[in-house]
Each structure stands twice: as structure tokens, then as C-alpha cells.
Design brief:
Layout lengths: L2 H45 L1 H4 L3 H48 L6 H11 L2
Helix pairs in contact: 1-3, 3-4
Length: about 120
């Protein structure tokens, strides 16, 4: 297997993992924000007469906005955290590769780092 195909496979796995993380965090965020929206809707219904007079479609619209906001904010927060973690891991691997290649007297170019990564299994 060439280093370019190994890199492509690794990137496809990273993309799939990021997608899975986003989906899970989006569902959790949607559940959390929907619960908050439902609670606020109940409180507003019993304490604010103007809200009580509103029709169900409007109240459902407000609740769906809470749900959508939960999906967006939850997924984005999780993706940013995942990307930061991946950057740290990648920088650590590249630093290790540069040090090991330099110790062997090899100039750590991108090609050499890819070969080292393939050889070391990282």
C-alpha cells in the first residue's frame, strides 16, 4: 500500500469519526435544548397571558427553534473540540517523526515523514 493511499484511508476514517461525533453531539444538544425550550414554554404559558393566547403552531415553532439551535451548537462545539484534539495528536506525531528522522540523519520532508509514518504504523 502506498503512502498516498494510506493517507487517503486515514483521512476518510478521520472524516467518518468526525461525522459520528457530530451526529452524537447534535442529538444530545437537541435533547438538552428542547428540554430547556419546553420548560420555558410551560413557565411562559402559566405566567404570561400574552404567551398563553398564542396558537399551538407558534409555540411549536418556538420549540423547534430551540431544537435546531441545540443541534447546531452541540455539533459545532463537539467538532471544534475534536479538531483541536486531532491537531494536538498530529503535531505530536509529526514532532516525533522529525526527531527520529533527524537522529538518523534524514531531512524530515513531507515524503520522509509519510514513509516514517507508514513504517512505524502511526
Amino acid at each position: 500500500m502506498s503512502s498516498s493511499s494510506a493517507t487517503r484511508i486515514r483521512r476518510e476514517q478521520d472524516v467518518q469519526k468526525a461525522y459520528d461525533i457530530q451526529v452524537q453531539a447534535g442529538l444530545e444538544g437537541a435533547a438538552r435544548f428542547t428540554a430547556v425550550g419546553l420548560g420555558l414554554s410551560i413557565v411562559a404559558h402559566y405566567t404570561w397571558p400574552a404567551f398563553r393566547r398564542q396558537r399551538r403552531p407558534f409555540k411549536a415553532f418556538l420549540l423547534s427553534m430551540f431544537c435546531i439551535a441545540g443541534v447546531v451548537f452541540g455539533a459545532e462545539r463537539a467538532l471544534i473540540a475534536h479538531e483541536a484534539q486531532r491537531r494536538l495528536e498530529e503535531n505530536t506525531i509529526r514532532r516525533t517523526a522529525r526527531l527520529e528522522l533527524t537522529k538518523k540523519g534524514i531531512i524530515p520532508t513531507e515524503t520522509e515523514i509519510a514513509k516514517w509514518r507508514e513504517y512505524s504504523g502511526r
